[in-house]
TrEMBL record:
<protein>
    <recommendedName>
        <fullName>GDP-mannose 4,6-dehydratase</fullName>
        <ecNumber>4.2.1.47</ecNumber>
    </recommendedName>
</protein>
<keyword id="KW-0456">Lyase</keyword>
<dbReference type="Pfam" id="PF16363">
    <property type="entry name" value="GDP_Man_Dehyd"/>
</dbReference>
<dbReference type="GO" id="GO:0042351">
    <property type="term" value="P:'de novo' GDP-L-fucose biosynthetic process"/>
</dbReference>
<dbReference type="InterPro" id="IPR016040">
    <property type="entry name" value="NAD(P)-bd_dom"/>
</dbReference>
<feature type="domain" description="NAD(P)-binding">
    <location>
        <begin position="13"/>
        <end position="343"/>
    </location>
</feature>
<dbReference type="GO" id="GO:0008446">
    <property type="term" value="F:GDP-mannose 4,6-dehydratase activity"/>
</dbReference>
<comment type="similarity">
    <text>Belongs to the NAD(P)-dependent epimerase/dehydratase family. GDP-mannose 4,6-dehydratase subfamily.</text>
</comment>
<dbReference type="InterPro" id="IPR036291">
    <property type="entry name" value="NAD(P)-bd_dom_sf"/>
</dbReference>
<dbReference type="InterPro" id="IPR006368">
    <property type="entry name" value="GDP_Man_deHydtase"/>
</dbReference>
Length: 355
């Protein structure tokens, strides 16, 4: 497959208005790409991420209101713009929400991948377009060993994980049976100041800032001892790009290789605003709570546990990224503390300027 120079490439990004989509669009624009972004709300440009992108990508960024499940519209767009690269970042990506909307999750995060791959073939681009799928560590489920790598057993336990496994298997099929350049990045949790407000990391940083400013009393969370492998989204989208620059397509695990508890994330966020807390009550039960242990608010309870936020099944995995590091030359450089500090500082700036 002959690939044009970076400066002359055209890329399509689904889910461009999200955290990953906006970082990836910025990266590609910086490399000289023409970028076509697909989003269900692109026409209104209501996303802050989209608003900032439009200023950066004037003349080379084009936004389209399009659903990945709309086969006709996707085919039409692909025929028109003839991209060398397609990045599928569109998904119902909230694991907790997948329990409440399993059908939507299966359709968008699973069948949506099949629809895109079929559309590429139907548009006559199967031999020229490279495809990236944003898969998830949730496809591993309760991993039998840690850390997990590309060959680890895949037994998803959540509706989201099962939908993502369908997408992952579809990519593998089109690569092996149809000869397409198609690959999956098996992404562990990745965060940033652009993370949606419904995700636990952003929920924490916003609440900590509001507690510091006296705008909020308490932060309510689920299992404080749940472990996550967290990294910075900006670094993960760079790995996505690297995956489509290789001679041979392959799947890669992308993560930090470090597990951290929700409890530790909370502690780091409070430390960033000059507050520290101690914990009382049972380990991770509803009686556990965090109390400020110094300053004018000493003794005040600021973190509580709510059983409603516990997941039915809690998996704890950590990534083995040796393949990505060796074959792609990718490295994680941002520590979790640096990431937490960046998110808290961002939310502090927003809260301080809010009317």
């Amino acid at each position: 497959m002959t690939v044009p120079s970076v400066e002359r490439r055209t890329a399509v990004i689904t889910g461009v208005s999200g955290q990953d989509g906006s970082y990836l669009a910025e990266l590609l624009l910086d490399k000289g790409y023409i970028v076509h972004g697909l989003s269900r709300n692109a026409a209104s440009c209501s996303s802050p991420n989209l608003a900032s992108l439009m200023a950066v990508g004037a003349g080379r960024l084009f936004l389209h209101s399009c659903d990945v499940m709309d086969h006709t519209s996707v085919c039409s767009l692909l025929r028109r713009v003839r991209p060398q690269e397609v990045y599928n970042l569109a998904a119902q990506s909230h694991v907790a929400m997948s329990y409440k909307q399993p059908e939507l999750t299966a359709a968008v995060s699973g069948l949506g991948v099949v629809n895109l791959l079929e559309a590429i073939q139907e548009a006559g681009l199967g031999d020229t377009t490279r495809f990236f799928e944003a898969s998830s560590c949730e496809i591993f489920g309760r991993a039998s060993r840690a850390p997990v790598d590309e060959n680890s057993a895949k037994h998803p336990q959540t509706p989201y994980g099962k939908a993502k496994l369908l997408g992952y298997l579809a990519v593998k099929h089109y690569r092996e049976a149809c000869g397409m350049y198609a690959c999956s990045g098996i992404l562990f949790n990745h965060e940033s100041p652009r993370r949606g407000k419904s995700f636990v990391t952003r929920k924490i940083t916003m609440a900590v800032v509001n507690i510091k400013l006296g705008k909020e009393e308490r932060l309510s969370l689920g299992n404080l001892d749940a472990q996550r492998d967290w990294g910075h989204a900006r670094e993960y989208v760079y790995c996505m790009w690297l995956m489509l620059q290789q001679q041979i397509p392959a799947d890669y695990v992308i993560g930090s290789g470090v597990n951290t508890s929700v409890r530790q994330f909370v502690e780091m966020a409070f430390e960033r605003v000059g507050m520290s807390i101690w914990w009382e009550g049972s380990s991770n039960g509803v009686g556990n709570h965090g109390i400020i242990n110094r300053g004018s608010h000493m003794g005040k309870t600021v973190v509580t546990v709510c059983i409603d936020f516990f997941r039915p099944i809690e998996g704890e995995m950590v990534a083995d990224t040796s393949k990505a590091c060796t074959e792609l030359g990718w490295q994680r450089t941002t520590s979790l503390r640096q990431l937490v500090n960046e998110m808290v500082d961002h939310d502090m700036a927003l809260a301080s300027t809010a009317v």
